[in-house]
């Protein structure tokens, strides 16, 4: 099996190295990751005449390529130009920080995986919740490998996109795996005012935020309760209920 591995925390991120180690033996690994930290870049790609410079890099002793662009750039470029053959699986992570609820929309990690799914390749995004100390990435990566083994044993369909989050590994956690829907509740966060250049107001996003969960068990509630969350995603944003209602409206004659 050929696996393309990427992330959004950059080619030097410990989560990438730990996941590369954990995936060793699962298949032939190609690593293409952003040269710089690219969190919260979502699906951004580099357009116009800007160059995507590809530099040789090393991830935990393995050859890798560092792309001067976004996570989506990395996977797009890897699939279209850099890899000698189409991979069987695209894996992104391990992101330093959970990608749950509406934060999935900002996530470069999920977007990197989604680029594989767009091309009809099964893809899995892995992220870990943050806690009081730095995550134990090798331990988190072992959880990721176990989840991936389960997914592969069950079989991944072409273009299937799975979002996996590992809770912060305190004693006794994870309690297990829960397959749960994405929460779409708002994230309560704030901006901190700072003096900007030339007396202009300036703000930066506060590191403190509060997740809320939509009713029922979701990725937000299950992760907080100590479970690994597995959420199948679709990148087709169509609201089918509203589609029906809109289709039933009288749009008039245009001829
Ligand atoms: Mn990140």
Protein described:
With 255 residues, the protein is of the alpha/beta class. It is 26% helix and 29% strand. It is built from six helices and eleven strands. It has a nine-stranded mixed beta sheet with strand order 3-4-2-1-5-6-7-11-8, sandwiched between helices. The protein has a two-stranded antiparallel sheet with strand order 9-10. The mean pLDDT is 96. Bound molecules: manganese (II) ion (MN). Manganese (II) ion binds next to strand 5.
Span between termini: 55 Å
Strand content: 25-35%
Question: The biggest beta sheet, please?
Answer: 9 strands, mixed
Q: Poorly predicted ranges (pLDDT <50, ≥5 residues)?
A: none
Trace the largest sheet across and list its strands: 3-4-2-1-5-6-7-11-8
* H/I helix tally: 6
Q: Mean pLDDT across all residues, rounded?
A: 96
Give the helix proportion (percent range): 25-40%
Over all CA atoms, what is the radius of gyration?
Answer: 19 Å
Q: Which sequence of SSEs, written as H and E, runs from N to C?
A: EHEEEHEHEHEEEEHEH
Bound molecules: manganese (II) ion
Number of strands: 11
Characterize the overall form. Answer: globular
- Class inferred from helices and paired strands: alpha/beta
Write the layout of secondary structure elements.
Blueprint: E1 2-6, H1 14-23, E2 28-34, E3 54-59, E4 62-67, H2 71-82, E5 89-96, H3 108-118, E6 123-128, H4 137-154, E7 161-166, E8 177-179, E9 187-195, E10 201-211, H5 219-224, E11 228-233, H6 240-248
Parallel strand pairs: 1-2, 1-5, 2-4, 5-6, 6-7, 8-11
Antiparallel strand pairs: 3-4, 7-11, 9-10
Helix pairs in contact: 1-4, 2-3
Bound molecules: manganese (II) ion (MN).
Manganese (II) ion binds next to strand 5.
């Amino acid at each position: 099996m050929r696996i393309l591995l990427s992330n959004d925390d950059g080619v030097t991120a410990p989560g990438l190295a730990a996941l590369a180690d954990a995936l060793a033996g699962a298949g032939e690994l190609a690593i293409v990751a952003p040269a710089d930290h690219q969190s919260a870049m979502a699906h951004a790609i580099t357009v116009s005449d800007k160059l995507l410079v590809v530099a040789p890099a090393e991830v935990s002793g393995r050859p890798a390529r560092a792309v001067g662009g976004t996570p989506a750039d990395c996977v797009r470029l890897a699939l279209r130009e850099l890899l000698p053959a189409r991979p069987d699986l695209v894996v992104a992570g391990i992101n330093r920080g959970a990608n749950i609820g509406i934060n999935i929309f900002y996530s470069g990690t999920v977007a990197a995986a989604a680029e594989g799914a767009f091309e009809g390749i099964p893809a899995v995004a892995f992220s870990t919740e943050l806690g009081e100390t730095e995550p134990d990435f090798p331990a988190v990566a072992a959880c990721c490998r176990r989840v991936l083994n389960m997914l592969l044993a069950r079989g991944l369909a072409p273009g299937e996109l799975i979002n996996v989050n590992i809770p912060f590994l305190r004693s006794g956690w994870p309690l297990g795996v829960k397959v749960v829907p994405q929460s779409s509740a708002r994230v309560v966060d704030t901006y901190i005012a700072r003096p900007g250049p030339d007396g202009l107001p300036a703000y930066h996003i506060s590191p403190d935020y509060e997740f809320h969960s939509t009713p029922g068990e979701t990725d937000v509630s299950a992760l907080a309760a100590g479970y690994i969350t597995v959420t199948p995603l679709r990148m087709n944003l169509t609201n089918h209920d509203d589609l029906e209602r809109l289709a039933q409206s009288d749009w008039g004659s245009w001829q």
